[in-house]
Amino acid sequence: MEKEGYSGLSEKEVRERISKGLVNETNTSVSKTTGQIIRTHSLTYFNFLNIFLGALVVVSGQIKNLTFMAIIIINTIIGIFQELKVKKLVDGLSVITATKATVLRDGKRKEIPIDQIVMDDVIAVESGNQISADSIVLESTGIEVNESMITGESRPVKKKQGDTLFSGSYLVAGSGLARVEHVGKDNYATVLANQAKDKKRATSEMQDSIKRIIKTVGFIIIPVGILLFISQLNVAGMTLSDALVNTVAGVIGMIPEGLVLLTSISFILGVGRLAGKRALVQEMEAIEALARVNVLCTDKTGTITTGDLQVTDLIPLSELSVEEIRTIMNEIAFAFDDVNNTQTALMNYFTDTKEWEITDAIPFSSARKFRAISFKDHGAYVLGAPEFIMKGNESLAQQVEVYSEKGLRVLLLASARYISSEEEQVEGVSPLALILISDCIRTEARATFEYFASQNVAVKVISGDNPATVSHIAVEAGLADGEKYVDATQLPQDDERLRQMVDDITVYGRVTPEQKQRIIKAYQANGKVVGMVGDGVNDVLALKDADCGIAMAAGSDAAKQVAHIVLLDSDFACMQDIVREGRMIISNIERVSALYLTKTIYSVLLNVIFIIIGRAYPFVPIHLSLISAAAIGLPSFFLALEQTETVTQDGFLKNVLQVALPGALVMVISMLINQVLGTFFALSSDVLSAYNLLVASSISMIILIKVSSPLNMKRKILCIVCGVVLVGGVLFFGDFFSVTTIFQWRMIFVIPVVAITYPMMNGFMTMMRRLTSIRHKKKKTVMEEG
């Protein structure tokens, strides 16, 4: 069995296990299935409600009022089509970022998707890998595992032969072989996930607000509809047929189906457009967080610099010559399996000799900042960050600082009297040499930083390197306030003190994974929306807790698994396009949501008022179909495709209500004025109905103009076209839209009613802005005092 373990399974044994279902099938697809997409858009509460309302219209015999059903069907088809189109694109990209595992089969290493792992497979693991199936360690070269996503404890756990590697954990140091013990639903992480199915996913304020609106409307719509129907039946001269139609009009006006469709389609199209920018969105809700990000934390490597490193010099600190130092480094540089840019630079510079026998080794980890190794008859050595190896050595620190201020990375090679991987101890350290490493600044870094500065996004560099080195490179790359740096070893342990100082820091150096997490949380505690860009295992904790975690496709499996968005080209410069795209999506949703929410608010208010006053409801369904199509549906389609990046920090609902609530109040007041005019002038029901439609159409156009402001040429043309559609519908299709002749003297009173709506709308909006300003001032005062 042990022999099989080291050579792996044969293809015959793999087929036998697959036939028995012993395969690591997982349900980790980013996108929904085709069936799920169709059901999501078709089998909805409001769709069923609309079908019921349509049946009532059929019973009434006034079939032309069924036009709202055509809009519902078209919306459903558009939603299905668009999401299927995006699904095809996203599924194609998911293949690129799919997590893979290296297995031994027939004695050869083979890379396969994790869902093709079978029971008893032998997998090869190394630093940065996420464990995809519960396994037993067969061989361990300093394996250390972070199990925080399972246990909540972030401290690395050492694993030796016979220990268990749990699925969901990831290697932070070392390498080795392990045999798969559990697959699929039997994995420890899957069992935990099934026990916590109510675990909250990343959410957005926008979707939370819309869900609250839908929940509230869904709760009140049936009792309000019943009361409205009873009220309409008691109106003098009202037939059963008319009562049904009026009730349907009242209820469909309350349904925010357009708002639901708009947001879902906008998010779906947003995923598609971001995919076009080579960014795979793994949680759709992250698009809003991406748009609202005002603090973007990132590492130096791969963002400011290209990530390509090269050793430039060896500086002896002892009696050893450069050649003797090179001999030692020839052995150390190839003794570990670490996969990172520094290791690559060392391997490119030194020679693989492997003449010395290794007796013990401590692999590098981002928490330790060094590696250690001992050789038979040749002593023990430590290689890593000077300030972690030789703490308190002031003369060495000053020498290192000189090179760091020139933008060079500095590694210290030191001898050690004793090292122990079991005890994680290094004793008797003495400096031998400094190894200088340089890296190249990206040509596009300056333009990237200038863009984020123009968008009021503060970029913070959080690095494991020397803070002076990182600061020098940041300033050279054009990062504003890049000279404001701190050594993370000097950061306070108290979270409250850390929160108070982070806003004044731009560059953090010598940061551990746990400190990255604390820094992210400190910015969030200060009310910031934080994005985190990372690619290594040392970024996982920060990526997990950021409002929007962004990983590089070329990075570690663990980083990609916890991130909300994966950059397929692993290029930080494309963050400009991605943030811009996210802002356009959210800005456009906020803009047009006011159109839909206005209709929902005034419909609810009108229903309640007309139930109380016992008058005929002012609209019939076909009136609302005309208004919804011309003043809401048509313009929202074009406005949602605009290229604008203005995203408010006030929050979705507060921003939308700035227009929606004043618009709804103006509509309600105008309809009540019409009721007074109808009574005073003894207007017939047909004439009053025409009054209501004309006034409501005019107010809808005013709301559209407010939503479209500031008016550029395209928006002016859009408003004119929508106005022409409304006027044309009333003038040329009056009979179809249940509008009696409007060419009579009584219609003149429409003019003063419409004339007062614009200043009334302005007055309500000014009042809303003042109230919002007062709340902001109070909130700011409370935060400052706190």
- Major sheet characteristics: 8 strands, mixed
Calculate Rg over CA atoms: 33 Å
Number of domains: 4
Look at the structure and give the mean pLDDT. 84
**Total count of helical runs of at least 4 residues:** 27
Describe this structure in words.
- Residues 97-195 form the P-type ATPase A domain.
- This is Cation-transporting ATPase E.
- The chain crosses the membrane at residues 42-60, 213-231, 243-269, 593-613, 619-641, 661-682, 688-705, 717-737, 743-761.
- It holds the Pfam family E1-E2_ATPase.
- Helix 4 (45-60) runs antiparallel to helix 9 (240-254).
- Strand 19, helix 18 and strand 20 (507-509) form a beta-alpha-beta unit.
- The protein has an eight-stranded mixed beta sheet, sandwiched between helices.
- It has four domains: 2-30 and 98-195, Calcium-transporting ATPase, cytoplasmic transduction domain A (Distorted Sandwich); 230-260 and 585-785, no CATH class; 279-304 and 442-568, Rossmann fold, CATH 3.40.50; 316-432, Calcium-transporting ATPase, cytoplasmic domain N.
- The protein has 786 residues and is an alpha+beta fold.
- Mean pLDDT is 84; it is low at 1-5 and 195-202.
- The protein is built from 27 helices and 23 strands.
